[in-house]
């Protein structure tokens, strides 16, 4: 169940809005299942090994947006808060660790989040050149009253792996300058400063503590053009990704009691891209981008062990091609393609492939709007094979999905809509993993196998939409 209510006044230049949203869900659903269980007809394709897997969640939020503009400046304020709760029951390895009661575990997360963002932009001139300066400030607090991991059987508690209270606070400031140096030369330069404080109170006292971290991220870019409807651009900058707070203060593995090394809270990222945008061909818009991303560490939280592992450094690079063509006012055709190469950059006998990294993605479709009260679309999405282990010897299959919708505008305020998902009823996977699990009767060490989550079967949905 979900709902939304919003009140607005004014417009996007001078106005404000207040929004409230609510969401609640409960479900009984398997996660990934082993391929061998399907092949042996132990379960059907959409079957489950542990029928008690599933969960429940809710999220209730409120936000305020306010903006005021003058002749050469504007100020925008966004404030928000939400309450969130999750209980998730999963069993990935079935009977590998506990042959009698099974390996089901319960992940719980209950938190209150609040934050705000203030942005001020001023347009002016410097040395007879047009200039736009923006400064901003962001703050966010996550008060996590309980985040825990528990060993369960049919959702009944067996024992606690770990349980923590976490308070995570971040404060960020940034400044950005955009300058037009000539009619066909524009630059962008920015600087962002982020500070984090992680405080963890663990039921395993040695894993409690407070960690502070900060990072500075400069960025820059240049745009050349347009030249006959075509412009070139390049961007480069530093960024980061944050790690789970529990990994920043850990000293002992909660599952084994052995020593554990804390991970770096904020991990550096370096990104760059060059590209071209063009509308030189009538009714066609094309963008081609070549990009590169370096990560100092691929960090991974191991949910069934309650620990955070610092992964290896990596390099990802590739290209993206996007096309939008509108031969008629009521018809739009689009086609996107991307390709990427993802590898660990250090030396390891295990190999240098990043498990789960997709190499090729293609999507395309046709959209019809306002054609004698009819509207609709047809969309194809293709996800190429991806390595499942570091040496690349085990790979997933490709996944292709064809979705369609057709609608009719009954009146100005009433629409009737039919959606059909996976029109060809393809038997692909949303995601695949490769690891060891144990089914009843199998050896104590389990069996290495592909574990998959199947794509939705051919499904139809009818909607009646009423606006007022």
Task: Offer a few descriptive terms.
468 residues, mainly beta, Maltoporin, Chain A, 19-stranded antiparallel sheet, 3-stranded antiparallel sheet, 2 helices, 24 strands, globular
How does this structure look, described?
By secondary structure, the protein is mostly beta strands. The protein has one domain: TonB-dependent receptor, beta-barrel domain (Maltoporin, Chain A, Beta Barrel), CATH 2.40.170. It is 2% helix and 66% strand. The protein has helices at residues 35-39, 245-249, and strands at 2-10, 15-28, 33-34, 54-69, 73-90, 105-126, 129-153, 156-182, 185-202, 209-224, 230-242, 266-278, 284-295, 299-302, 307-310, 314-328, 331-344, 360-371, 374-383, 399-411, 414-421, 429-437, 447-454, 459-466. It has a 19-stranded antiparallel β-sheet. It has a three-stranded antiparallel β-sheet with strand order 3-23-22. Strands 14-15 form a two-stranded antiparallel ribbon. Strand 8 and strand 9 form a beta hairpin. The protein is globular, with a radius of gyration of 26 Å. The mean pLDDT is 94.
Radius of gyration over alpha carbons?
26 Å
Major sheet summary line: 19 strands, antiparallel
CATH class: Mainly Beta
In CATH terms, what is the fold-level topology? Maltoporin, Chain A
How much of the sequence lies in strands comes to over 45%
């Amino acid at each position: 169940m979900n709902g939304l209510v919003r009140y607005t006044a004014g417009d996007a230049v001078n106005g404000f809005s207040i929004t409230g949203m609510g969401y609640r869900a409960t479900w009984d659903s398997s996660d990934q299942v082993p391929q061998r269980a399907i092949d042996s007809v132990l379960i059907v394709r959409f079957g489950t090994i542990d029928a008690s897997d599933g969960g429940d969640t809710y999220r209730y939020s409120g936000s305020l947006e306010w903006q005021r503009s003058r002749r050469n400046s504007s100020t925008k304020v966004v404030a928000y808060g939400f309450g969130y709760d999750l209980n998730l029951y999963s069993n990935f390895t079935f009977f590998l660790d506990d042959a009698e009661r099974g390996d089901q575990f319960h992940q719980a997360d209950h938190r209150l989040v609040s934050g705000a963002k203030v942005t001020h932009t001023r347009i002016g001139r410097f040395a007879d050149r047009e200039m736009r300066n923006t400064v901003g400030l962001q703050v966010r607090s996550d008060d996590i009253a309980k985040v825990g991991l528990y060993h369960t059987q049919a959702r009944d508690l067996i024992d606690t792996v770990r349980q923590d209270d976490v308070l995570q606070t971040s404060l960020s400031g940034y400044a950005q300058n955009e300058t037009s140096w000539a009619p066909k030369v524009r630059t962008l330069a920015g600087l962002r400063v982020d500070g984090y404080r992680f405080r963890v109170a663990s039921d395993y006292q040695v894993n409690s503590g407070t960690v502070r971290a900060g990072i500075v991220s400069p960025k820059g870019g240049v745009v050349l053009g347009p030249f006959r409807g075509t412009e070139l651009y390049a961007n480069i900058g530093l960024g980061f990704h944050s790690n789970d707070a529990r990994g920043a203060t850990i000293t002992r593995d909660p599952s084994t009691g052995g020593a554990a090394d804390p991970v770096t809270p904020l991990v550096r990222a370096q990104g760059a891209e060059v590209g071209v945008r063009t509308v030189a061909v009538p009714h066609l818009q094309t963008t081609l981008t070549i990009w590169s991303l370096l990560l100092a560490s691929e960090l991974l939280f191991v949910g069934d062990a309650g620990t955070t592992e610092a992964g290896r450094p990596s390099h990802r690079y590739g290209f993206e091609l996007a096309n939008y063509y509108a031969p008629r006012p009521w018809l739009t055709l689009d086609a996107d393609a991307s390709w990427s190469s993802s590898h660990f950059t250090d030396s390891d006998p295990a190999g240098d492939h990043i498990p789960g990294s997709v190499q090729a993605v293609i999507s395309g479709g046709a959209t019809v709007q306002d054609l004698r009260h009819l509207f609709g679309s047809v969309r194809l999405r293709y996800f190429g094979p991806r390595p499942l282990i570091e040496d690349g010897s085990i790979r997933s299959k490709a996944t292709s999905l064809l979705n369609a919708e057709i609608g009719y505008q009954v009146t100005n305020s009433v629409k009737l809509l039919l959606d059909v998902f996976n029109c060809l009823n393809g038997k692909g996977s949303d995601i695949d993993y490769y690891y060891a699990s144990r089914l009843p009767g199998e050896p104590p060490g389990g069996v290495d196998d592909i574990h998959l989550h199947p794509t939705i079967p051919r499904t139809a949905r009818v909607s009646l939409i009423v606006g007022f």
